[in-house]
Amino acid sequence: MKTPISEAAIKAMLTREKALFIQRNPKSKGHSDNAARNWLRGVPMHWMVDWGTPFPLFIEKAEGVDLTDADGNSYIDFCLGDTGAMFGHSPKPVVDTLLREGAHGFTTMLPSASAVKVGKLLEDRFKLPAWQITATASDANRAVLRWCRAITGRKKILVFNHCYHGTVDETYVNLDHGKPEADRALIGEPNDLTQLTKVIEFNDVPALEAALAPGDVACVLAEPIMTNVGMVLPDDGFHAALREITRRTGTLLIIDETHCMSSGPGGYTGEHGLEPDAFVLGKPIAGGIPAAVYGFSTAMTSRIRDYLKTRPPGHSGIGTTLAGSKIQLALMQTVLETYFTREAFAPLIALAKKLEKGLADVIIKHSAPWHVVRAGARVEFMCCPTRPRNGGEAAKMIHQPIDQAVHHHLLNRGIIMTPFHNMLLICPSTTGAHVNQMIEGLDHCLAELMS
Ligand SMILES: Cc1ncc(COP(=O)(O)O)c(C=O)c1O
Questions:
Q1: Percent of the chain with pLDDT over 70
Q2: Nearest atom, ligand 1, residue 137 CA
């Protein structure tokens, strides 16, 4: 993408900041060198090196919004584990529950009485009657796709170009000049994913009509706002059209709220009155301990119950041993009661609005061709002048060198943003002073880049 920010300015900043990063982090460098022998790519998850820094920061501790690395550098964390720590790192109510309940067993392969309370809380917060637990949002999405296929008898699914729903193979299909193409970066995929996955652009109602018209799609899996390619907002009326067309064609609608739950205590669905057949929520639901949930509408639940009467006994292909555990349930109860409330979200959203305005003002001050978007407690600045309407447009606008330069600049000044794009999340420990520091950080960055 063309940018009035000169390539030379970006390169100069990145080169200098990489050198500064190396200088500031000798202990992380040492850990990185030592870990290289026993871990693929030197890290416990291979994508941890994809942050793009010369080596990963090794984190010593995380509390609230504060991170401290191995070299004793401290950071304000706006990444918050990419929402896993959306309510802060080790929030006290979660730690208290862990200490109290952890002494009485983590996992038993049987339900605990918390299941009754958590089921009621889930119904109360998200307005759906029937729920299941998984260990991750990826697992939840995979499970829901299976239920949808089972009860519709249809094999195909539909996703939006450049979506991300976790490690769910069949969602890794993008449009390449209008043609569905499986993501070549996917490791070890034996199937031709384009056979069972239809992919269209977000906000494209005619394409949706055409794709669902044959009546062969079990479900549409969608984030209500696309959040993994920068942020792409739905057009006015898009969700109404999506719901109407899916209903008319007998296609189930899954809303993946894993990131959009930043919108409010009922997620984007609750804030905007969506009516999904299935709903997925992961990451912070147990305060950052692995857990996710999925829920079904009354109609879908009754179809599943009918289907189950016909199913022979045996392995279902859904569910893992550690899912639905005693400790997950206890933590979920605490998190749902403490944080999934309008009162808890209100200050987060107020602070996010302050951040949104501050960043927008800085962008205007420097006449940068950028803009800011927000979904409740989540703010993102996009390095392009106008809002992309779909994943294809958004992917073209991502300017990796700029993102890298800005991220390095901020990291070296004690601010962590989400890698891969420019997401900033507010948690209960974030303060106005933290937000001001972030705004000033971007101000300094842009002053240098635009000069
Ligand atoms: C929208 C969405 N759904 C699902 C997932 C998968 O979450 P997990 O990696 O916890 O399985 C992600 C991860 O970022 C996501 O962004």
A1: 99
A2: 11
Task: Using a pLDDT cut of 90, give the percent of the chain over it.
Answer: 98
Domain 7-77+342-450: top CATH class: alpha beta
CATH topology of domain 92-338: Aspartate Aminotransferase; domain 2 (3.40.640)
Q: Where are the beta strands (DSSP E) in 12-77?
A: 59-63, 66-69, 74-77
Q: How far is the CA of 293 from the centre of ligand 1 (A)?
A: 12
- pLDDT band for position 1 (cuts 50, 70, 90): very low
Task: Report pLDDT for 3.
Answer: 53
Residue 381 amino acid letter:
F
Which residue has the CA at smallest separation from atom 14 of ligand 1? 166
CA of 139 to the centre of ligand 1 (A): 9
Res 118: pLDDT: 98
Residue 364 Cα, ligand 1 centroid: separation in angstroms?
Answer: 33
- Chain region(s) in the chain for CATH 3.40.640.10: 92-338
Name the closest-CA residue to atom 6, ligand 1: 166
Residues 6+ apart with CB under 8 A from 9: 448, 449, 450, 451
Q: What is the 238 CA–ligand 1 centroid distance (Å)?
A: 23
Average pLDDT value over all residues in the chain: 97
Distance of alpha carbon 280 from alpha carbon 260, whole angstroms? 10
Model pLDDT for residues 128-170, shown as the tens digit of each residue: 999 999 999 999 999 999 999 999 999 999 999 999 999 999 9
Q: Whose CA is nearest to atom 7 of ligand 1?
A: 137
- Please compute, for residue 306, the number of CA atoms within 13 A of its CA located in the half-sphere on the CB side: 9
Mean pLDDT within 387-413: 95
Residue at token pair 């990826």 = 138
| Segments of the chain assigned to CATH 3.90.1150.10 | 7-77+342-450
Ligand 1 centroid distance, CA of 39 (Å)? 23
Type of residue numbered 346: A
Give residues (CB < 6 A) around ligand 1. Answer: 82, 136-138, 141, 164-166, 223, 228, 256, 258-259, 282-283
